[in-house]
Amino acid sequence: MLAAGVDLGGRTTGTTAAAWVEVSGDGAPRVRSVVADRSLRGDRELCDRLGQPAVVAIDAPLSLPHPVVRNDPTCRDWFPSDGSVPSYGTRTELESPSAWAEVEAVPPGVKVDRDRLDSVAAAFVGWLWLNGRARPVPHDASPGSPAIWIP
Q1: Across the strands, what pairs with 34?
Q2: What letter does residue 26 receive in the DSSP assignment?
Q3: Eight-state DSSP code of residue 34
Q4: pLDDT tens-digit profile of 29-82?
């Protein structure tokens, strides 16, 4: 069975990433492919690109970063005066080639970046859900009810 994961592009980057995880010959999860670009911003474009996976898992924040909800353009904490992109945190240790080395069976030539890695993580959670190995929050949620599913 095929699970797709999506990291939706936000206001600050605009890049949406999608990944597909499937079962390999030995039953382990394997990344089939990963894409990321600005052309996946619309619903139709994203749905067309995803195809018909058994499940789509979406990586979405539980809260919005300060630059998204802040309406004061004079806020220099989040909107630098030099016009650069707002900073809302980083996970440098998780966004390196060594982090990607931990993700087995990533296709050769896959570019390393936050959007792609987040889409692979979402697809993996989708794969776990398909295989009855993800846990819901709240813990008593059923597969058809609203819940957040975690490894």
Answers
A1: 19
A2: T
A3: E
A4: 999 999 988 888 788 889 999 999 999 999 877 666 555 566 666 666 555 566
For the segment 10-24, what is each residue's pLDDT rounded down to a tens digit? 655 678 999 999 988
Please provide residue 33's backbone torsions phi and psi, each rounded to the nearest 5 degrees.
-165, 165
Beta-strand pair 55-59/3-7:
parallel
The amino acid at 9 = G
**CA 131, CA 40: separation in Å to the nearest integer?**
28
In angstroms, the CA 11 to CA 50 distance is 22
Q: In which domain, by residue range, is 140 found? A: 3-150
pTM of full prediction above 0.85 = no
Residue at 34: amino acid letter: V
User: Rounded to whole angstroms, how far apart are CA atoms 127 and 134?
Assistant: 9
Domains contained in the chain, number? 1
